[in-house]
From TrEMBL:
The protein's name: Alpha-hydroxy-acid oxidizing protein
Homology family: Belongs to the FMN-dependent alpha-hydroxy acid dehydrogenase family.
Keyword Signal in annotation: no
Binding site for glyoxylate: 29, 132, 134, 169, 271, 274
Domain of life where this protein originates: Bacteria
Binding site for FMN: 82-84, 111, 160, 247, 269, 302-306, 325-326
PANTHER family registered for this protein in UniProt: 2-HYDROXYACID OXIDASE 1 (PTHR10578:SF107), S -2-HYDROXY-ACID OXIDASE-RELATED (PTHR10578)
Length: 364
């Protein structure tokens, strides 16, 4: 399977190879979007409609992909979005991502529902990790995780606010996907038809939601998160001494309110189009939000990015930094850590080439 890495020349290649190896249930969990998935198609169409203007006869022989985020150097203008249960794509995937973050000094978003303990991930990432937080239920367990992240040395907390209820993703529902991971007759047949994945996972052990094995409470993925409000944000702001990022924003008025609430950055995102099928294309909302918050307020972007050119489009639209998500999982599913590194190099090469074509030598 590692040899598949050499065949990854684009995010589309990684997805195609991953689809061959992953059980249908796992592939559709990673790949699926809300409803009939028109929201995902809308965002892709909006990204495709953006253009980059070629410029000529500029000396672009010496180009740098480096940038800064919260005052620290980063070797790329893209990082790793928080993704739950990454070890379903390949055993040890969380730590593969952590090693990548450490190598390029970029943030690794550590999901509340990661399959590796948050303490281990930040250690392997050499500090280049941000903890992503879901408010759940009455919030008691949520704030326990905040204290735990603080104790582990996390300096940036990412509050995801676009999941008051878990979005309906029919592909996922048809397969009976659940967390904690469970196996019934249908899943057993699915796994039997994908023996390479199944044997690899069997040797590594069933992926778990690791952050809840040590936190003194259980996590129900379907539990309502609808109680979170502006008072919740204020409480979190008071108890978190580091950078506070709010992720899942698509409305300019909300963005301005968040700026006034003293958050340190906003992440424009539609949760990879996994929540509300009718949501606007995040790349379109990005420019509107940048106008609302002003030129100097830190603004990040994720959702639908599939290439280095997409990254440059998002930066041109007002983002200071961007994040890749499911494409990285597909790369690991296709070729393990070698596949991940290969796709990361592809994204880097695509961005560097786009910069040359558009007459840019740097990003800062």
């Amino acid at each position: 399977m590692i040899s598949n890495a050499a065949h990854i020349h684009s995010a589309q290649d990684a997805r195609r190879l991953a689809k061959r190896r992953l059980p249908w249930m796992v592939f559709d969990y990673i790949d699926g979007a809300a409803g009939n998935e028109t929201g995902a198609a809308r965002n892709r169409a909006a990204l495709d409609a953006l253009t980059l203007e070629p410029r000529i006869l500029r000396n672009v022989s010496d180009r740098s992909l480096a940038t800064n985020i919260f005052g620290a150097a980063a070797q790329r203008p893209f990082g790793i979005a928080p993704m739950g249960m990454c070890n379903l794509s390949w055993p040890g995937a969380d730590l593969m991502l952590a090693r990548l973050a450490a190598k390029y000094q970029v943030p690794h978003g550590v999901s509340t529902v990661a399959s590796t303990p948050l303490e281990k991930i930040i250690e392997v990432a050499q500090g280049h990790a941000w903890f992503q937080l879901y408010f759940s239920g009455d919030g008691e367990g949520t704030f326990k995780l905040v204290d735990r992240a603080k104790a582990a040395g996390y300096e940036t907390l990412v509050l995801t606010v676009d999941v008051p209820e878990v979005g309906r993703r029919p592909r996922e529902l048809r397969h009976g996907f659940k967390m904690p991971f469970s196996i019934g007759p249908r899943q057993f047949v699915d796994f039997a038809l994908h023996p390479q994945w199944s044997l690899t996972q069997l040797a590594a052990g069933k992926p778990q939601m690791a952050n809840f094995q040590m936190s003194g409470y259980s996590f129900d993925r379907t539990e309502s998160r609808a109680r979170a409000d502006w008072d919740t944000l204020a409480k979190l702001r008071d108890m978190w001494p580091g950078q506070l990022v709010v992720k899942g924003v698509l409305n300019a008025d909300d963005a301005l309110s968040l700026k006034n609430a003293a958050v340190d950055a906003i992440q424009v995102s539609s949760h990879g189009s996994r929540q509300l099928e009718s949501a606007p294309a995040p790349i379109t909302a990005l420019a509107q939000i940048r106008k609302a918050v002003g030129a100097d307020f830190p603004l990040f972007y994720d959702s639908g990015l599939r290439s280095g050119e997409d990254v440059l489009k998002a930066l041109n639209a007002g983002a200071d930094f961007t994040f890749f998500g499911r494409a990285l999982q597909f790369a690991m599913a296709a070729g393990g850590e070698a596949g991940l590194n290969q796709l990361w190099d592809v994204f880097s090469d695509e961005l560097s080439s786009a910069m040359a074509q558009t007459g840019r030598t740097g990003l800062t």
